[in-house]
Amino acid sequence: MKVSDILRVKGGTLFTMQSDEPLARAMNDMAEKDLGSLVVMTQGALAGMLTFREVIRQIVKNGGQVGASLVRDAMDAQPITCTGETDIDDVRRMMLEHHARYMPVMDGAMLMGVISFYDVAKAVVDGQNFENKMLKAYIRDWPDGTSNETDEVKL
Predict the structure, then answer these.
(1) What is the pLDDT of residue 79?
(2) Total domain count for the chain?
(3) Looking at the domain assignment, is residue 150 inside a domain?
(4) Could you tell me which of 104, 122, 120 has the C-alpha nearest to residue 14?
(5) N or C: which terminal CB in the chain sees fewer CB atoms within 10 Å?
């Protein structure tokens, strides 16, 4: 299974934020839209990722306040990325190695979408469920070995 398969099922809605916008606005957008992440763009190019993890770190750094922080102050400026052709097993490995819950999907410099660890886990479980159903159907249709022919051996 490829990342493009997940994006096809997930849909194409993208939520982005500019790096020079106030962090408080990004937090508000994330809360209102129930988003775990925002892709940060600068002049149409990927600049970073903002997740609640980065937001919390910035608030702690500011002594418990958002203050005048900008999105660029909190974002991960070097997020791991993948393409639509990346295999799901590779994405799962990368996300685990980097403790990443969200990953931008790129086609060159163009943002194609974002996949979450939940999306990957769901795709794996759905694939396993389909495979289990197919195996059970195969086993159910397995010939039982009985035959109408005689079992005599002719010499």
Answers:
(1) 95
(2) 1
(3) no
(4) 104
(5) C
Question: Is 151 inside a domain boundary?
Answer: no
Domain encompassing residue 28: 3-140
Type of residue at 115: I
**Average pLDDT over the chain, rounded to whole?**
88
Residue 145 within a domain: no
The phi and psi torsions of 112 (rounded to 5 degrees) equal -100, -25
CATH number at residue 87: 3.10.580.10
Banded model confidence at residue 146, pLDDT cuts 50, 70, 90: low
> Which pLDDT band, with edges at 50, 70 and 90, does 35 fall under?
very high
pLDDT, tens only, 49-86: 999 999 999 999 999 999 899 999 999 999 999 999 99
